[in-house]
UniProtKB/TrEMBL annotation:
Feature: compositional bias, Basic residues: 216-226
Keywords: Metal-binding, Zinc, Zinc-finger
Region (Disordered): 196-254
Protein name, per record: Zinc finger CCHC-type
Compositionally biased intervals (Basic and acidic residues): 244-254
Domain CCHC-type residues, every copy: 263-277
Species, as recorded: Arabidopsis thaliana x Arabidopsis arenosa
Xref: SMART domains: ZnF_C2HC (SM00343)
Amino acid sequence: MANIEKLKFPALKITGANYIAWTTDVELYFESQELSETLKLENLSPPKDKAKAIIFLRKHLDENVTHDYAHIKDPAELWQALKARFHNQREITLPHALEDWKNLRFQDFEKVEEYNSAMLRIVSQLKYCGKPITEAEMLEKTYLTFHKEHCVLQEMYRNCGYKRFSELIVTLILAEKNNELLLKNHNSRPTGAKAFHEVNATDVKNPERGSQTYRGRGRRFNRGRGRSFNPQSRKSYTWVRPDQSSKGKESQGRNAQKRESICYRCGSKGHWAHVCRTPEHLCKLYKESQKGKGKEVNLTEHFEGTSYLEASDFINDVDETAHADN
């Protein structure tokens, strides 16, 4: 891999597929280094230049090709040997290039740039094989291979009177980019719909709200440090401390019990005493059953925490209840 990175251009393959490009690169490089005379037969170049040329050629050859010509020390002799071996690439490449030119169609490519690359590659191969293609032939090839649905566009481009293939390609690429932008804007939202505003547009446009946010530690959307909103009560919108959240739930449960409509006359739920229709003897039985519960209720109301009772308290309550019954 280190040797590949130091190469000036790709090495000559053993099949000779890149012989055309390789010879062109070698000739241009030797001209820049003033070593072109070393490739001519019976040249009088100094031994130092010949050594540089032969080292460069061997470095840019496939390993198998290098082994075949390892005994040659003259760059001109090596150059002629490679030419005799791979110069027949013109006869090999010509049938394939003609077939590619025959099957080349503009409608077979999704992108204009891909079609342009294929066209220039085939034209270059045909030119190397001695079959150059003119600009008019390239333009006509493009016009005749448009898709049948684009026959109107084909006539429009033909009437523009382009003289060079590159001018037509630039126009086609520009039209392709504009069509992509048109489809992107069309699919962004339904026809007739307005553009969505940004999420933070309201916060930016409201200076009062923006000035109140992030003012001090822990005061965003709060009225003091350590306070939180109680989401259970949607109607009151009161602020409750975190440590009082559990007490708030208990008090809410008690208030819910108090708000229940309980009749103190019969003990039933769903109506008040002034509309109670329960028979009198049933109401009397209910009141007698509630007589022994008053003391317990008073204890829970006046004492917080645990209350300690003695056995005598229960005995007295039982005696009083029995006496009242007699």
